[in-house]
Design a protein that fits this description.
The complex is a heterodimer of chains A (about 250) and B (about 250).
Chain A (H helix, E strand, L loop, with lengths): L1 H31 L12 H15 L26 H8 L6 E6 L5 E4 H6 L3 E8 L5 E10 H8 L7 E6 L5 E5 H4 L5 E6 L2 E2 L9 E3 L12 E7 L12 H4 L9
Parallel strand pairs in A: 1-10
Antiparallel strand pairs in A: 1-2, 3-4, 4-7, 5-6, 5-10, 7-8, 7-9
Chain B lengths: L24 H26 L3 E2 L13 E2 L21 H29 L1 H6 L8 H13 L13 H23 L3 H6 L1 H6 L3 H39 L11
Helix pairs in contact in B: 1-2, 5-8
Classes of the chains: A alpha+beta (about 250), B mainly alpha (about 250).
Amino acid sequence: MSRISRRKLITTGLATVAGVAGLASADRLARRYGLIPPDSGGIFGPGETLTYATQRLLTRHSLAREFPRSMISAKPFGNEIAPSNEAFKRHQALGFADWKLSVDGMVAHPTSFSLADLRAMPVRNQITEVMCEEGWSYIAEWIGTPLHHVLDEVGVLPHARYVVYRSIEPAWWDSIDMADALHPQTFLTMGMNDGDLPIRFGGPLRLRVPRQLGYKSVKFITTMTVTDSMKKFGKGLGSASPEAGYAWYAGI
Amino acid sequence: MAASSTTQHISVPRAGTAATPRHTPLVRVTHWLTVIAFLALLITGLEIVVSHPRFYWGETGNSGTAPLFRIPIPASRDTVPTGYAYTMPDQNGWSRYLHFEAAWLLVITALAYGAASLLNGHFRKNLLPTPEQRNWPAFRNVLSKFLRRPPPGSADGHSYNAVQRVAYLSVIFILFPLVIFTGLALSPSFNSAFPFIVNTFGGRQSARTLHFIVTNLLVIFLVVHVAMIALAGFWSRTRAMITGRVTNSSEGK
């Protein structure tokens, strides 16, 4: 009896040591390859990390589904009213002629882009679905400049890991990793369904991140900061969403 | 301990011996992990539904389009036309975090259970209907016996009948895979890598609606499963799933 329990004790001990060592090296590898999300702490951290790491391994280069023109929703659902702050109202009165996107942080040439500057870059279109975390969705055509053109222009430094982007409404800011920032379908969107992007849908400038849920596609974008760590931004959780109880990574 | 009919079951030496537990440790542990994961998924899933209690068919659907059906409850968001003048508290943040964490627990548990059960013959020996059970009279017998309500013999505590085997296999190999894959089909990132899965379900909103319907079927299974256990002797059956020891239902507390 005692021999069996001693053997059990030794095997259990060895298994525990192997498990801890395995977890530690998995953690080291995951950190090196950028598989740990900024909101990996707390009781939901393990699930969040598993989701983000698995999806990053499977989807680094995959493309969001695009749809035929015939599937564009006749009734897209715009759930936004115009921001109520004075800065937005001034821009609105001027027809957004002075709207600027300033890009700074870990870049060689911090630059401020007007909407005309962005339109002068290669402009692309995509017919993709917007999916709200609530469950509803619609398909629209989105016209804009792929973010990677802007990032090429400002010269992103090699150690950059995230792009932080902010709405003209200070409460709304978010960030994406470089896999999404350099992704060909991540657009600085200025047009929708062959017209200008309406305010209800985030006009004049909205970041579209079609491989994540709608709340990552922040509306009324004015500034961007390239960084190697999210610790210095807000509470260090990656975006305003985790501070309000929502996951930073919204690929699911 | 009633031993009247144990002699008929030579392969099961004596009820309650530690040497041959009714359920293997693997079955017991994965059963209760599944219970924890399923209840967490069910509660958080309901909470997520409350933010938009309308269901659609096809690729898209929103408050501006006609639903396939809707649940007549108030929503937790004020953009949903529910007919109610008030909104419920919004709990989507932690519900979504916990839903996906519990989904990982379910998937990892299912993979461990599935792989081990294929290797050790659990599916083949305990769940695949035996040759004598693979005919309609076997199924009819189970049902008529159930309806006539004789006290369950100790034989029922040691092995599954034809209806139980088919029910468990359907849940393990049809309903759980369906609920997992309709759930994955709601992930925009997963769909970018494996678009054929969401397309097979008929689009994103169809997948969401199927996810809800399959969940309802799993809840029906859960209700019947627990009711049958209550009829067979709740404590004796539950003890068998916790400790592996089996006792006759007549002495169940």
